[in-house]
Amino acid sequence: MSDTEGQNTPSTSGDAGTTVTSIPHADPAAMTEICARGFDGAVGLVYTETSADLVRATWEVTPSLHQPAGIMHGGVLCSVVESLASIGASIWLGERGHVVGVNNNTDFLRASRRGRLVAEARPIHRGRTQQLWQVDITNDEGKHVAQGKVRLANIVDTGSLGH
């Protein structure tokens, strides 16, 4: 099945008080909507492309994302790297299970005070038990702001997550 066939809205299921989200073929608008309920919403991420081979999102650097020196907090960049890699990895793994990040290494290359940033995630390796994704973040001028790599574990026994 191609990335455009069978697209659907993310679904949720789980025990009482537990929500597990499945995102096998979510479109960017659906992804933005469901992710806005969590930390991605606080950052203001807007997904513009979501597939197993490329995830792209944008957001505006605002004072609410600044650290005391008046530049965007590095944790925002780490979080964006983690979010995009996790979504791409989840789409690729599909109904076989869920992914969890096990390592996030993000390099900060250029400070940002304002403007729109673009993040693009692409897979480096996708295997039976783990995946490795690279995320590049650029500013309005096309200059690199950060680059990160996330290693994710493919979890097929999803009942064991969080216990």
TrEMBL record:
Signal peptide: none annotated. Belongs to the thioesterase PaaI family. Residues 1-23 are annotated as: Disordered. Residues 70-144 form the Thioesterase domain. Keywords: Hydrolase. This is PaaI family thioesterase. It holds the Pfam family 4HBT. GO terms for molecular function: hydrolase activity. Transmembrane segments: none annotated. InterPro entries: HotDog_dom_sf, PAAI_dom, Thioestr_dom. Gene3D superfamilies: Hotdog Thioesterase (3.10.129.10). Its EC number is 3.1.2.-. It is an enzyme of class 3 (hydrolase). Residues 1-22 have a biased composition (Polar residues).
